[in-house]
Amino acid sequence: YNITYVGANFSVTARTLTVTVDSAQTKVYGASNPGSYTYTYGTLYNSDTSSVFTGSLSRAAGENVGTYAIGQNTLSAGSNYSISYTGSNFSITARSLTVTADSSQTKVYGDSDPAFTYSHGTLYNSDTNSIFTGSLSRATGEDYGSYAINQNTLSAGSNYSISYTGSN
């Protein structure tokens, strides 16, 4: 017999590797973003280590309080793996903002109440006093005496959670 051999190729295909973004990644409004977004991954083969990963995850743009999708971006595990990606959300939570009613606010018996004033802690992300809406109010009464100044409708918007200290 005379054998005529016709060759064939054997293929090694990429293995599917599950990559799952860690949930509950968060920051407070005005804080820096984390250096990187974290994730877990399935089994690596042939003595591969986490060093096969290159690139990084990224999140949707935005700095206001809310949730932002974390996307795969440039994350790769090399040509031996095909990533099956499961994303998650990154949350920005409200920053606590101290607001204190100014002390020694007064009026003369029979006069109208003044606009009640206050001081506040540091604002972030180039915010200015224009974020404040609403006003302080005071306990009812017109006789000589001290009346508590209350937060009433004063708000600093959804990026801040006011921690209010009143005054008498």
List the helices and strands and how they pair.
Elements: E1 15-21, E2 25-28, E3 39-41, E4 58-59, E5 66-71, E6 81-86, E7 88-93, E8 95-101, E9 118-120, E10 137-138, E11 149-150, E12 160-165
Parallel strand pairs: 1-6, 2-7, 8-12
Antiparallel strand pairs: 1-3, 4-5, 5-7, 8-9, 10-11
Terminal-residue CA separation: 111 Å
Q: What is the N-to-C order of secondary-structure elements (H for helix, E for strand)?
A: EEEEEEEEEEEE
In total, how many beta strands?
12
Q: What can be said about the biggest beta sheet?
A: 4 strands, mixed
Outline the low-pLDDT stretches.
none
Spatially, the strands of the biggest sheet line up as 2-7-5-4
CA-based shape? rod-shaped
The helix-and-strand class reads mainly beta
In helices, the fraction of residues equals under 10%
Strand content: 25-35%
Average pLDDT reading = 96
* Contiguous helical run count: 0
Rg to the nearest angstrom? 30 Å
